[in-house]
Amino acid sequence: MRGGRSNVCRLRTHGRFPSSRNRYRTRCIGLFRGDTAGYLIIAGGCNFPEVPIAEGGTKRYYKGIYATPLDKGIRLTWRQIGALPDAAAYGVSIITGDGLIFIGGNNQKNTFSSVIRIRWESHSRERIQIDSLPGLPFPSDNMTGCRAGDYLYVAGGNKAGIPCHQFIRLDLRHEELRWETLPPFPGQARIQLVCGAIGTNFFLFGGFNLTARSIALNDYLYRAEAKAWEEITGPVDEYSSPLALGGGASVSMNDRMFFVGGIHRNLFRIGMTDPPADYMKHPAAWYRFNPYLLQYDVNGWSILEKSPAKRTGAGELPVTARTGASFVNDGKNLYLIGGELKPGIRTNEIYRITVK
Q1: Is the entire prediction scored with pTM above 0.85?
Q2: What distance in Å separates the CA atoms of residue 194 and residue 325, rounded to the nearest whole number?
Q3: Which H or E run contains 269?
Q4: Residue 331 region, left (φ>0) first, then alpha (ψ -120 to 50), else beta?
Q5: What letter does residue 273 receive in the DSSP assignment?
Q6: Vertex 322, ends 119 and 349: CA angle to 5°?
Q7: Are 60 and 49 in contact (CB under 8 A)?
């Protein structure tokens, strides 16, 4: 694994979520998100607005769609531009040439198979148009997905509430067609996995299975031309110990994939198997979420940055040590949006990362 540090990227604060009369609304995870026509867009998401999860709080879901231009320097100027058909979180977001595609997800009552595309209605960037695309073969949440070549791919996640091996794709050249079922990925069924693409090839990393109480460390490449999977080497930390990317975030840009955050496999395993009574009540640093900004390309893995500690409402933490964050690129920069600092405790900070 190649090493790297701050000489290859620059990370700086880039504002916060949209302001709201309800201050809790601005600290969400599981967002739909993307960049289109020079605007950063976020939608939906969920949080525990009244009582933290550690104290038995109830999760709330949202449907607002917000946008901010990315050409205004460091300041983000959010405004609401619409609403999702339903309050939802934990779906898949994919950027295409003419808009954003939001796939599946769930809320406290339903899991969705819907696939919608969001586009600006005119060049004025004042209103959006929401169109329906062919729905998933079944409702799904906590899966992953991205675009590779002419296809949208979706993998893993929950099917009827149970982690699965699903792997499907939709041909963007023929959007009227149904989703095509492909060979399921090997290894464990998993949720909250991450993915990326180089050319027409699809890469699958991380995830975990709460039902089986297992954490995935086996990663795979799907070669589209051969319609076949093969196992590949996963990431390691600066001490050559395997990293678990479950709960992390990923984005592809210019034949490179970038990854941030994710669980600590040993500490998360305690929470899945035999958690002590105070498991949810430790300081944020105790959970040791992945602090690295990672890159994967044709030459393999590298650590671009181990972010410095920063004082937060949850204590001293590396900026990139979070789960449930959103990751977006605008073709030049990466945007790290929100996420959990510890179970149930979210941040509304947004960072811009410039990578050489």
Answers
A1: yes
A2: 12
A3: helix 265-273
A4: left
A5: H
A6: 60
A7: yes
